[in-house]
């Protein structure tokens, strides 16, 4: 895929993530945002906190990668390494297979307020700025360390695609949890 096309698609997807979280989650009361559909599942806010933890790492990595090279690249075909393709396939929203997250990225049991939602929205704004800054960057350059094994690196383009797909996947999960909270039967004692 051409770099300009990929960056436009990712920008559109991040704008949609921001708009969806703002319009569908932000108006909800805290008990709905903290509702867990099952004892072992995450609430909407836990889904967002999970994404925040990843964003804290990957936003810094991407910023460093984008500022480490001159903005001279012309539109080019974006390739994927085996690791990049595998990482993306694992988190893409239409992959229904559940995966365990690493312990320090698991927000289960966290006491969360709406600040998790506000932080998520801020990360989306930051990601939009990075996507704009990536226009003149060689997206095929391996420059983004992987969070759980920092010796391995993703290409800039595949890291951007991984981050956005991961956010889409867990925002969908957050929306499902919030929806189940509003449709759950009320127990009257």
Summarize this entry quickly.
It is built from six helices and two strands, in the order αααααββα. The chain has 189 residues and is mostly helical. The protein has one domain: Up-down Bundle (Four Helix Bundle (Hemerythrin (Met), subunit A)), CATH 1.20.120.450.
Please state the CA-atom Rg, rounded to the nearest Å: 17 Å
Which outline best applies?
elongated
* CATH structural architecture: Up-down Bundle
Low-confidence stretches: none
Structural class: mainly alpha
Protein name: DinB family protein
Domain DinB-like: 22-174
Pfam families: DinB_2
InterPro entries: DinB-like, DinB/YfiT-like
SSE layout:
Elements: H1 3-25, H2 30-33, H3 44-67, H4 82-91, H5 115-133, E1 142-146, E2 149-155, H6 156-183
Structure description:
- The mean pLDDT is 90.
- This protein starts with a helix and ends in a 6-residue tail after the last helix.
- It has a two-stranded antiparallel ribbon.
- The protein is mainly α and 189 residues long.
- It is 57% helix and 6% strand.
- It has one domain (3-183): Four Helix Bundle (Hemerythrin (Met), subunit A), CATH 1.20.120.
- Helix 1 (3-25) packs parallel to helix 6.
- This is DinB family protein.
- It comes from Hymenobacter nitidus.
- It holds the Pfam family DinB_2.
Question: What distinguishing features does this structure have?
Answer:
single chain, 189 residues, mainly alpha, Four Helix Bundle (Hemerythrin (Met), subunit A), two-stranded antiparallel sheet, 2 strands
């Amino acid at each position: 895929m051409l770099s300009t096309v990929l960056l436009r698609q990712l920008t559109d997807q991040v704008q949609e993530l921001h708009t969806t979280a703002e319009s569908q989650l932000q108006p909800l009361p805290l008990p709905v945002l903290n509702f867990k559909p099952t004892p072992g599942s995450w609430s909407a806010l836990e889904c967002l906190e999970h994404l925040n933890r990843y964003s804290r790492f990957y936003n810094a990595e991407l910023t460093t990668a984008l500022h480490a090279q001159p903005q001279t690249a012309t539109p080019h075909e974006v390739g994927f390494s085996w690791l990049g393709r595998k990482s993306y396939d694992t988190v893409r929203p239409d992959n229904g297979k559940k995966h365990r997250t690493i312990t320090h990225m698991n927000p289960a049991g966290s006491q969360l307020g709406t600040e998790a939602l506000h932080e998520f929205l801020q990360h989306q704004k930051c990601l939009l700025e990075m996507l704009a800054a990536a226009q003149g960057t060689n997206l095929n350059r391996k420059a983004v360390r992987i969070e759980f094994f920092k010796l391995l690196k993703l290409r800039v383009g595949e890291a951007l695609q991984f981050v956005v797909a991961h956010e889409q996947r867990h925002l969908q999960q957050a929306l499902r949890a919030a929806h189940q909270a509003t449709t759950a039967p009320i127990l009257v004692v």
